[in-house]
Structure formats: C-alpha cells, structure tokens
Amino acid sequence: MLNLQHNVVNILYTVKGMIESHLIRAKEGRFKDREEALSHAQEIMKRIYDQANRALAITKRISLAIRAERNSDGVTHEASVKSVWEEVAGILKRQYSLSELVVIDHISAGYPKVQCSRNDLLEIFYTLAQNAIQAMDRKGKLIIRANLQFSNGDLPLAVITISDTGPGIPEGILSRLFEPFFTTKPLEEGNGLGLCLVKSLVKRNGGCVTVSSFQGCGTTFTLTFLSRNRRNREKKRIMQ
C-alpha cells in the first residue's frame, strides 16, 4: 500500500507542478501573447492527460492483482494454450510493427488444455510477450514452447516457456522482478505492475512462474500448470 501511495502521489505532484508552472508564467507575463499562452496550456493539458492515463493503468493493474490474490482457490477452468497464444500473437501484430521481430511458436496442435482461466492465460501471455518485445527493442526472436513434464508416474505437468533474445536482466535485480512497482522501463512504457499481476494470476490458477536470464543471452519465463490430462487422470484415480 505504501508503494501504491508513493506512485500515485508522484503522479499528482507532477500534475500539480505542471499546472503551477503555467499559472506562474502567466501571472508574471512571461508569454509573448495570448496565442503562446493558449498553445502552452494545450501542451500542458496533453501531458496531464498522459499522467491521468498512467494513474488509471496503475489502479486497473492493482485491482486485477488484488482480485487474483483474493480468488486464488477453486479455479477449475481450462484453456487451450495454442488458441490463446494465437490470439495474443494477433494482438501484438496489430499493436507493433514486427518487421524485424521473429515470433516462433513451438506448440503442437494436439497440446492438452491447461487448468487455467482463458482470460487469465491471455493476460499472462500478453504481458510476458510485450515485456520481451520491449526488452528487445522490437528486434530479435520471441519464442514460446509448450512441453509436458512427467513426474509421479505418468501424470504430466504443462510447462510453457516464453523466451527472448534481448540483452538479458542483470543478476542483481532478478529477484525483484515480481515486486509491485519495480520496473527498469521508462515511465511511459511501464508502471512495474505487469509481472506482479502475472505472478498473482498464475498463482490463483494453481501454477507457478519462474525466470532465468543471462546478460547478453536473453530471458526466459517458465510457467507450470496442471494439464487437463493430469487432472482427468487424478479424478479417475480418486474414483477408483
């Protein structure tokens, strides 16, 4: 909550400072004419609009994260990894000019569904992919792989990795990536809530998320969920 207060208060002080600067300049007669004063006021309004959007984005992310944390039990939805990723890829293609970016999809058509809300999985994929694209400055390779990990006999876990060929993340900040409001991006690109939300959404769907990175060698986020096959087999085992 203190972090939330810090970020929102910073935005309010920024807006307050811009307005005060304009009013003082007008009061001291430092505009050449009425036209220059109006032009400056219009520029201030645009900047205030951008700050308001930042504040709204922060509150939206926090609201989603809080709801995810409160509803962490009892999620039994299923989602197609292939279908959700294709939707995310379509959104990214419309949002970015990807002429210098290669998107590689290693998800077989028959990959089993995972125990995760479809909307949550879409948000998770989109956030991780967007972060990767920004880290690579839209140049490089974005790779998603979906595998099955077998343990405890023949019960598989769904293991999904999203990797990029960006500059990597310094070892000293890897442990802080999922902290609320921690970001290495410029203010206009991020508010430090994306990965925090990812962790909350993964957790409420019974999964886990980890990250590995080496400077100069890119970054990989690994998601682990129960697969539909595992869930169905566990049900059969209980019935027997």
Tell me about this structure.
This protein is about 50% helix and about 20% strand. By secondary structure, the chain is an alpha+beta fold. It has 2 domains: about 1-70; about 80-240, Heat Shock Protein 90 (2-Layer Sandwich). A 5-stranded mixed beta sheet has the order 1-2-3-5-4, covered by helices on one side. The longest helix has about 35 residues, at about 35-70. The N and C termini lie far apart (about 50 Å).
Rounded average pLDDT: 81
Helical amount: 40-55%
Contiguous helical run count: 7
Q: What proportion strand?
A: 15-25%
Q: N- to C-terminal separation?
A: 48 Å
Structural class: alpha+beta
Kindly identify the CATH topology of the largest domain: Heat Shock Protein 90
Shape: elongated
Brief rundown of the structure:
By secondary structure, the protein is of the alpha+beta class. The chain contains seven helices and five strands.
What is the secondary structure topology, with strand pairs?
Layout: H1 2-27, H2 34-70, H3 81-95, E1 101-106, H4 118-135, E2 140-151, E3 155-164, H5 171-174, H6 194-204, E4 208-213, E5 219-226, H7 228-239
Parallel strand pairs: 1-2
Antiparallel strand pairs: 2-3, 3-5, 4-5
What are the defining features of this structure?
single chain; 240 residues; alpha+beta; Heat Shock Protein 90; 2 domains; five-stranded mixed sheet; 51% helix; disordered N terminus; disordered C terminus
